[in-house]
Structure formats: structure tokens, C-alpha cells
Q: What sequence folds into this?
């Protein structure tokens, strides 16, 4: 893989569209968790826990919203 | 459906009015949860849990507030 | 009622004063919860739960603070 | 009392100094809770609960931080 | 002590460096808690509770991050 | 070690790339926890607790997102 970054894909916050910016926000949020819990096995075990827990799903949504605020601003809201 | 986006409806943060901007904030928040929990069946099962839990309703409101901050800024507060 | 909006009263973030801006923040926060839990009966049942729970009152205050940040900025802080 | 506001003392976010701005943030946070739980008796009963609970004290601090961000910006950081 | 402030040390958000700005963020966060729980004895009793609890340590870090955002902006990021 | 700072590595928020800015956000978040809980032994004991808890991993991600927002702005989003 030519992209050597571990935390920010392509090492950039700039995306062509809001949709791709939002996907980047989701991705960045996941990569932070990957850095804190590097074991893919453990992360897989945790997935059904948070994916079936309403409070955790809301908390994930909140985190993505914060990431997206930064990305949207970096892209001047794609105006 | 012509709109192929999964995370940002119409692939834009721009709305004609604050009301529509707020509706977009609610929608975007829901789409993040849909991405994390793709099963419609599970999401339906979770609905009565969070819709009857005061703490979760507040947490949803908090998340929508964060999404709306971004959308409101993108629209220069509809001034 | 002439105001047909469900999420943003008067479809505007602009208010004459900080006090009215704050009241709008409280109102908007409540309308998000109303959208998520449309049953007035359920919301009434939840009221004594959060109104007597210190942690939930703090969480409501936090949410209103986030809403107010957006409204205050929209009004250029009423300077 | 000449100040008729219930949510924003003096109906203004402007303060002479950071210290007074911070005090305003604390005050505004409390007034939101007062609006949600109007009973002084209940609020008094809740006080020892949150004042002796580390997690709730942190949550209060978080909320005040968000209020202060708005007030500090309104005052251009008192520069 | 010549500094009569209780919430903002030196009554200023301006610091010479990011390190000092961060220390100020930590300090301000603590002073909010001191205002809410004035008893030094109680605060001392709470210290081992939050200092040994992962979730509370994270919540403290979150609060400091919010305080720092304000201070960093006040200092124009020390650029 | 020539870097005498304890809270902000290199005493600067400026980084060459988004990837390094994100790494700095992670680092700063950890240093706040180190300041609150100085014992390396206790922090090591807490690691498996939060690293195996979905809710705590999400909360860490949220905190890093807030730190990153500040760093990204300080770097003008590396545009």
C-alpha cells in the first residue's frame, strides 16, 4: 500500500464532496480506536457489543459529528 | 433513487432554511448509526430502547446539536 | 398556528437578545427530543425522571450549551 | 430586581474580564438547570449528590467549559 | 496573594507558550470543580476515585481538551 | 531529553502533515491523563480496562477528535 499513514488516510483532510468527507470522518474515528486497541481480534469481539447497544451507537455518532465538523471546515463546507 | 449517497443526503450541507438544516442534522445523525449498524431489524429493535430512555434521548439531542452547528455554519446561519 | 416548523421555531436563529437566544436554545433542544419521541404521553412520563436526576440535568445543560453556541454565533453575540 | 431575565444575567454575554466571564459561564449553566428543574427544594436535594460525585463534577466542568467557549469568543478573548 | 481571581488565574487567557496554555486549561478545569465543591477535604477524598478510574480520567481529558480549544484560540495558536 | 515540556510535545501545535497532527492529538490526550494520574504503574493497570471496553474506546476517540480540531485549526488544515 502506497499510503503509509495510520491515522489520516491519504494524509489529507480535503475531499471532493461532503459524502466523501463524511466517510473520512467515520474512517478517522475508527483509526483512533485501532491505534488504542491494535488487536484486530479484540476489535472484532467488541463490534457486536457496540453495534447492538443504542447508547454506544449514539456515542459513535457523536464522535463522528465532531470529526466531521473539522473536515467540513477544512473543505470550506464544499461551497 | 438518483441520490447515491449513503451518509450525506443530496451530497450537500446547504439548505434553504434553518428548519431544513435542522432536519438534515437529524438525518445525518441517523445515517451514521445506519452505517455502524446496517441491519434494519436491529435498528428497529433498538428504537423503543432509546426512545423511552431519557438519558439516551438527551444524548441524541446533543449529537444533533453538534451536527447542526456544522450545517448552520455551512449556511452562514441563513442570514 | 402560522409557524409550520417543527424543529426551529419561526424558522430562524436570529433573536433580539441573548435571553431570547438562550430560550431558543432550550426550545430547539426540546424539539429534537420531540422528534425522536413523538408521544407526548411518554415524554411526560420521562420528565420526572430527568428532572430529578442530577446527571441528566447536567447532560441537558450541556446540550443547551452546544445549541446556544450556534445561536450566539448566528447573532454575532448580540454585540 | 431590575434584571428580568431568567436565563442570561443582565441579558448580555459581555464582561469586563475573563474572571467575570467565567463566573457568567458558571451562572448560565446553573440557570439552565433551574429552568429544567424549577423546584428549589429538589435542586437543594440534588446538590450533595453531584457535589460528592467525581463523575458529575467532571460533567459540570465540561458543561461550564462549553459555555465559557461562547462567552470568551463573544468578548474576543478579552485581548 | 496578589491574584484575587478564583476561576481564571491571573485573570487572563494569554500565555507565552502552548505548554503554559495547556497548564492553564488543566488549572481552569480544576478551579471549576473547586467552585462546585468548595471543601478541600471532599475533593481530596474524590481524587483517588477519579485518578484510578479509566472512564473518569478520559472524561477529565475531554474537559481539558475543550478548555484548551478556547485558550489556544485566544492565543492565536501561538503562531 | 531536550524537550522539557510535559503537556505539549515540542511546545508547539504546528505539524508538517495531518498525520503528524493527529498523532500529536493522541499524544496530548495521553499526557493529560498522565498529569492527572502520574503513576505509570496505575496507568498500566488501567490500559487493559479501557482497551477492552467499547464505550471507553469511543470516549477516547471523542477526546482525540476534540484535540485534533484545535490542532487542525492551528495548522490551517494543512491546506
A:
Amino acid at each position: 500500500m502506497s499510503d503509509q499513514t495510520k491515522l489520516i488516510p491519504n494524509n489529507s483532510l480535503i475531499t471532493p464532496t461532503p459524502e466523501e468527507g463524511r466517510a473520512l470522518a467515520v474512517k478517522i474515528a475508527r483509526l483512533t480506536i485501532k491505534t488504542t486497541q491494535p488487536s484486530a481480534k479484540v476489535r472484532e469481539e467488541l463490534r457486536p457489543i457496540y453495534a447492538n447497544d443504542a447508547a454506544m451507537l449514539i456515542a459513535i455518532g457523536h464522535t463522528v459529528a465532531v470529526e466531521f465538523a473539522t473536515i467540513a471546515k477544512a473543505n470550506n463546507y464544499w461551497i
Notes: Chains E and C do not touch (no CB pair under 8 Å).
